[in-house]
Amino acid sequence: MSEGHGIDRRDFMRGAAAAAFVGGAYAAVGDKGEEMVWQLDPNKCTQCGRCSTHCVLNPSAVKCMNQFNICGYCDLCFGYLQPGSRGRDTGAENELCPTAAIKRTYIEDPYYEYVIEEEKCIGCAKCVKACLVFGNASFYLQIRQDICINCNECSIAKACPSDSFKRVPKLQPYIYLTGDVSTTKSQPSSDPNPPQTTLGPRSENS
Amino acid sequence: MKTVRSLLVVGLFLLPAMLSVAAEMRFPPPDFQTDYKIPDLNSPAPVSSNGTRDAIILFIALSVTTWMVFKARSRRGLFIISIFSLAYFGFYRTGCICPVGSTQNVMAAVFLPDVGVSVAVLSFFVMPLLFSLFFGRVFCASVCPLGAIQELVAIAPIRISPALDRTLGLGRYVYLGLAVLGVATGSGFFICRWDPFVGIYRMGHSFGMLLAGGAILTLGIFVARPYCRFLCPYGIMLGWMSRFSKWHLDIPPSPCVKCRLCENSCPYNAINMPIPSHLVGDPEAGKRRIRRLVYVSPLIIAVGATLGYLSYEPLSRMHPKVALSERIAAENIGKLTTDTLETRTFRAGKQTVDELNAQAVQIREYFKTGGAWFGGFLALIICLKLIGLSTAPKRDIYTPNKETCFSCGRCYPYCPVEPLPKRS
Q1: What is the ipTM of this complex?
Q2: FRET partner for A200 with CA separation of 20 to 30 A, picked from A53, A71, B87, B230?
Q3: CA-wise closest residue to A141 among A21, A28, A45
Q4: What is this structure's pTM?
């Protein structure tokens, strides 16, 4: 009899442990249990180039983006052209991008459109740096969320010297250079005021 | 408009000093005369973290494994599920997220104030433990991708002595302690960083990690599942749960006939063998040993905690901020003559050395507390293990050791009481 009682109590304890365990675990989540993804803050980025070498994917899931509403559409684009290049044409010897991932299209005098062909981009940030130093800083790096496999510990985040990588909510997975959401219509979020759309010092007078 | 732009461009060439001014819209956005429209940004939604689907698949895999372990009693079935797990959780889902690593996400939610963990990740952590509480370590049997890859290469397993097995098994506790310490102090997710197989799943990683993965797999041909037995931090918790599991795999499905045939079937030393009567110690002597250990264990734990506290300085170097602060200091006093990308970036940034050092001091304080807990935890584990070793209980049949048994089913075909596998 006493044995039977012991087994009952043991079962009860097991059930109680399981319930407390699940309940406690879910309580620990609280209201912060949003799904998160990795992203880099372009306002902190120092264009060191490690994004292209430290991602577990090859080529990296970090790609350059051109924020067109900041872009000056310059003829002499330093993000596109090698410094000291002889001609302003699409010759490979003139291009800064090591993989020729920037497509230059004539629009009207004197404006040219620069589109990143992301399947070629390796995230080396050479163009980002040049555009920051010489231009409007419309080029910036972002993790492309359709490519990123969202490792639990991001290898680039570990290697990033400027602490730019952080987890952001899955529903607002990009950090834009400007708060002007009207130019980012394809953003999946319907939130009119995404908190991650940080206005960095670089875009104050845009 | 055009002339302004040309002037600016010329100015940039003539005055390199201008390069240092803040880059704020040097060139105004153009006013297009043609009907050119500024394109939208291409910002595709994340598709990678389909957590709910993975949690459902994990649940199904655990349920099927449980059925294989208890009802079908099929080693082959378990093997097939491990191939599936390796393919899905390993190669297809690139090893992320796995229950082993999810421990860290849960710890982060517990220790760090502004970090949460999603329900999907939490269920990854909780589900295998709950299954373990009721059915034993069915997760290890064939669902864990890390276990599955080792199970596949364990072709010629040898048995190592139980004493060596136990001693090396303490490595798991060190690993768990370090992982929790790393999360609680914000140093990083060490279980993921040192995951030896994730490089294989992703077909690419740092050379060192691929080498470590290859070495562990090579070792795993002869010493089956070395990661699970000597390193896996999640296995500890599964073992604790499994110890109290309601049901557990049995070697024979009907009474054991003590034929000794299963003795060599388990490469994990997870079969409790009958203890011959002349080796069963005096129970009173065992009780005395346990009593002495219980009296002395607070002292051992205190010593462990003190040692952990005292080793806060080397431990704190795991945190990148502390490492950076020490590196900067070494460069400033001329001890190191070369700089690194980290120190160059720091010097180019806005933060001052004093601010960084203040942060480092704060983090070292965390490591003092954390180190004491870490040392105390390891000492407690050693005490518990010693207490566990101080009695030889009476055992006269072959039973699986509920804590260390992976429910892999290797012993099934060795048991003559086992009915022949059903052919359906």
Answers
A1: 0.81
A2: A53
A3: A45
A4: 0.84
